[in-house]
Amino acid sequence: MALMTVEQVADFLGVQVIRVERLARENLLVAADKDSEGKPLFNDDDVKRYKVLAERLGGL
Hints:
50% of the residues lie in helices and 13% in strands. The protein is built from 3 helices and 3 strands; from the N terminus they run βααββα. The chain has helices at residues 6-13, 17-25, 44-56; strands at residues 3-4, 33-34, 40-43. The mean pLDDT is 94. This is Helix-turn-helix domain-containing protein.
């Protein structure tokens, strides 16, 4: 299990950082931990599963 930063998740999903922060705030993408600045860190497997689900539902 590797952790991804908000910026890494945004790059992987092809969206803006603000979108990832909103997904975390709305609990659509659940943070596994927080970094030293209090920003969320995400499990890479969760991010991959979210991307697959979002694509099935019509895209990000």
